[in-house]
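Both lines are given unchanged directly below:

***
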Amino acid sequence: MIVKIFFKWVTTSLIAVVTLVSAAIIYVSLAVDINGFKPDIESLARQQGWDLTIDGDLAWTFFPQPGISIEQVRFSDQAAASGTLDSLTLSVGWIDLLSIGGDVSHLQGGSIQVNGGQLLYKAPNSLPMQLDNISLKTSNILLDGSTFPLTASMQALGGQKFSIAADIAVVANSGTVQSLSLSDLTIRLNDIEISGSIEASNSLSFIEGSLQTNTFSLVQQLQRVAKILPIVSVPKMADPSAMTGVSIESRFTFDTQTLSNIDGRMMLDGQAIEIGLQVDHQRNKLTTLISADVINASNYLPKPGSNAGNSSLFTPLAIPFALWRGQSQVEMTLGSVQFNDFSVDNFYSNVFGNNRLLRMTSLNADLFGGQINAIAKLDMRSAIPEFSLQPVINSLDLGAALPVLADNKTVTGIANLTANIQGSGNSLESIIKSLSGSGQFDIGSPSYNELNIEQTFCSAAAFFSSGSGGQSSQQWAPGTDLKDLRGKFQLNRGNLKINDYSTATGNLDIAGRGSVDLVKQQYSIAANVLLDSAITSSNGCSVNQRLQNRQIPFVCRGSFGKGPDNSAYCKPDEKVLKSLLKNTVFEGLSEKLGESLLKNADKDETDPLKGLLNNLLKRKLK
């Protein structure tokens, strides 16, 4: 009996409450013109630093919670952020509403829902960002540090899918947010999932937290970005799986009044790379520190046969500096960078950038048994990048370097070089054609295996022999071992001019000049060979006394490339040789026949002896 009375009482009470609430809803809907509050809402927003314009209608909502729905809202923070909202719904819980005793200022919680919207963020010294199709939902919002949920989704960068979910806690006083925390944070950008937590305090001027990603394909992400930003290109790499296994973890602190720091680690296809970023907000400077023990760079080289050589070589260098509009510095330290046939060890570089102007103040590396140091400048402010380079090379093993870098096995030695070089262009070919500058070099214990210079000299000396000396019967080595080679060079539009070089082999002193066409990979060298002894070497050939201490010019030509035209040769200069050989023969006849006979031969062009000599010269020089 008591139970029946109790349920009857509850039922009657609920009917009464529903009736009263329904009546209140009808009264509010009919008696209060909510659109009349538009000017008040816009004025209140301006007082909080926001320009707000309501182009649509306002409407009451009562279920599942009482609130207001606003259509077609335009907003701006009068600085960097602006946008539109298709629909904005603000609501509070029934219990919260009934407990305030009629004073709206006592409301402690509420809910926000956004359907359809757009946000454009344009801040100084950063790239603009636009978000489309914004959808947001949060409920039970409290500003006393209590946790409430937030979910949002949107599209960015031309259709990239972005979403976020987190538990939020906010502390606000007098309309100012004092602290904010995001826990159980999950952010998704296409296939990338980021999780972690963020804490902000001191009126949001100090932020710290940690984030980590799943393993994702960086290639796919770059391909998406490349459709939007033409500056980004994704070449086909030697290893098809390169950059498909990437993950990042980081810890960070942001202090907008002083310095901000990010310490992170990126796993790149199983290779650990430490990354540190520091932002000096007072100087608007970003410093990036990158280090790794071992990087297998061969996997990331352009795939053979791809068009990577025709694309901009400097584009990848521009990306980190384009993302930050202020001053930038990138410092890189790598223990070993491995390629298929060699490795670069102890690599260090320091690059400063500002407005697409990059200055490399230091580059050091050990490779091929030697060391490279360099400073450089790269100007990418115009369509055709310009650069200057000042390299210093010490103790580079040419026998190890040239087969790998130039597919050339003809030269060995230990090279040292200093140079000042300038150039411009986007492709390797255009850069080579633009090169200019100068420098000097020396090569210790060089050798050239294409021909034997001493054998070539002895073959030429045989023309001058008159029964004694000349060609040796020994078996010649296939190449030439030289003494230290020194010289200077100049670059002009891709042509390398070698000036004042000097070296020696055996008792032969060699000096001269030469030129190298870097585009065609062809060379031409003029050499003056001087013998200061009776024999070319201890195992060489004897030479006519008249040819000793006399410069004999040679011309050497060849190619560094492959194919039928890459054969090398050295031979005496024909014009000079004819004159020298003629004088030498005349000198020999002078000793045997007397000066008077030669004088008569010179005066009488029909002299049979003179004709005999001319015929002899022609036969020897054929």
